[in-house]
Amino acid sequence: MTSRANLSGKKALVTGGSRGIGAATARRLAREGADVVVTYVHGKEAAEDVVRAVETLGRRAVALRADAADAMEAAGAVDRAAEALGGLDILVNNAAVGLMQPLEDMSLTDVDRVIAVNVRGVFLAAQAAAALMAPGGRIITVGSCVTRRTPGPGATLYAMSKSAVTGLTKALARELGGRGITANVVHPGPIDTDMNPADGPFAPDQAAMTSLGRYGTAEEVATAVAYLAGPEAVYVTGAELSVDGGYAA
């Protein structure tokens, strides 16, 4: 089947791209023709596996260690990616901390780290990318279904952080639209990853909350990201695209 995203010659950065949704997104963008940089913190070997997978598809790939919790590294990763690839057309803000625990058990350290990674890191990466992007640039952030429906306790901090990047995305769409740069957010539902496996202890309850009665795959989320990165989404900006199997329906 002929690709419809048509990202030939595009240059992309996927933060947190060593595993799960990030790794699937890097591979999908490469399938559509993009060169890709992925960042990682601890998963060096996994990131190098993604690089090899991208190179097998005939595209250029680089793995960079960058901690989104560090302000300098969050912004610096964008500049390093652009230097490695010779420019930047697509930023996928995927790196995140998924802390789930009772409100009263959250420490100030927990709050600071989640906000640093999930909000400040996303803002700084978007700010740095916007300074480099030409018309046609794409900023895509991975949000969460908990911003649309929070079914139980324990998600307060995480939901707040992901709601913040939804607001950021809408503001970016207004700020950058005149330059022909779009900004959108993808809200995954329960997705089968090593952090939340489809055969894990919480899976039956989470799957039952979806309309389709199952977990999604990282590849299904990556398909939505690839669409937003491609030319057919040129008139889509400031949008929230749910890939959640009807979790929030």
UniProtKB/TrEMBL annotation:
It comes from the Bacteria. The keyword Cell inner membrane does not apply. One of its GO terms (molecular function) is oxidoreductase activity, acting on the CH-OH group of donors, NAD or NADP as acceptor. Residues 10-194 form the Ketoreductase domain. Keywords: Oxidoreductase. PANTHER family: SHORT-CHAIN DEHYDROGENASE-RELATED, SHORT-CHAIN DEHYDROGENASES/REDUCTASES FAMILY MEMBER. This is Oxidoreductase. It comes from Streptomyces yokosukanensis.
